[in-house]
Design goal:
The complex is a heterodimer of chains A (114) and B (115). Chain A has 114 residues and is mostly beta strands. Chain A has strands spanning 4-7, 10-13, 19-25, 31-38, 42-49, 56-57, 64-68, 74-78, 87-94, 104-105, 109-113. Chain A is built from no helices and 11 strands. Chain B is an all-beta fold and 115 residues long. Classes of the chains: A mainly beta (114), B mainly beta (115). The interface between A and B is medium-sized, with 33 and 29 residues.
Chain lengths: 114, 115
């Protein structure tokens, strides 16, 4: 039981390049999330998926797209990377139908855009 | 507009003493509150939570207090241990009909427990 896994762990891009961050969970959770963490800014929600086949914007969606490939996988795509997207990206998942709201986080992807 | 505020970026305490981390919120629709702990180079991990129908929840050395009238919650760690040194995030959620409970996070408080 690996929980939430993310690939890659580190990535360096040049401005304008594209890439996809991968996330998978093996807890049979319906909801999945993408956050970014910047120094002094806490965790900010980029996109989330309440269930397979649905996605919605979070607080900072500009410059990103997502795909909920199936119940297990939720990917985040940067079509044209910008230095402002240098950050640590976390994927998370949670069950539904309960008020606990506990989200389980992956280890993160550290992205640098030059 | 910060809906969840952690006004102390850092806190330093001695081993064995009490650590008190504070969190304020502005959205009265929040009905569930969580604390997460984060070590460097790792993802956040859930620590403890509290529903808005309660004013206290305890789990071992960790206790969370909720004061709804003041829109304030606090995390108490007693006794503090060096392994508690981490960044602590306060988070809040409001049930939405979409079925996914989005969390709003504070900016975090870095706790250092000195031996």
């Amino acid at each position: 039981n690996a929980g939430v896994t993310q690939t890659p762990k580190f990535q360096v891009l040049k401005t304008g390049q594209s890439m996809t961050l991968q996330c998978a969970q093996d807890m049979n959770h319906n909801s999945m999330y993408w956050y970014r963490q910047d120094p002094g800014m806490g965790l900010r929600l980029i996109y989330y998926s309440a269930s397979e086949g649905t996605t919605d914007k979070g607080e900072v969606p500009n410059g990103y797209n997502v795909s909920r490939l199936n119940k297990r996988e939720f990917s985040l795509r940067l079509e044209s990377a910008a230095p402002s997207q240098t950050s640590v990206y976390f994927c998370a998942s949670s069950g539904t139908g309960v008020m606990s709201n506990e989200q389980f986080f992956g280890p993160g992807t550290r992205l640098t855009v030059l | 507009d910060q809906q969840v505020k952690q006004n102390s970026p850092s806190l330093s305490v001695q081993e064995g003493r009490i650590s008190i981390l504070n969190c304020d919120y502005t959205n009265s629709m929040f009905d569930y509150f969580l604390w997460y702990k984060k070590y460097p180079a790792e993802g956040p991990t859930f620590l403890i939570s509290i529903s808005s129908i309660k004013d206290k929840n305890e789990d071992g050395r960790f206790t969370v207090f909720l004061n709804k009238s003041a829109k304030h919650l606090s995390l108490h760690i007693v006794p503090s241990q060096p392994g508690d040194s981490a960044v602590y995030f306060c988070a809040a959620s409001a049930w939405n009909q979409g079925g996914s409970e989005k969390l709003v996070f504070g900016k975090g408080t870095k706790l250092t427990v000195n031996p």
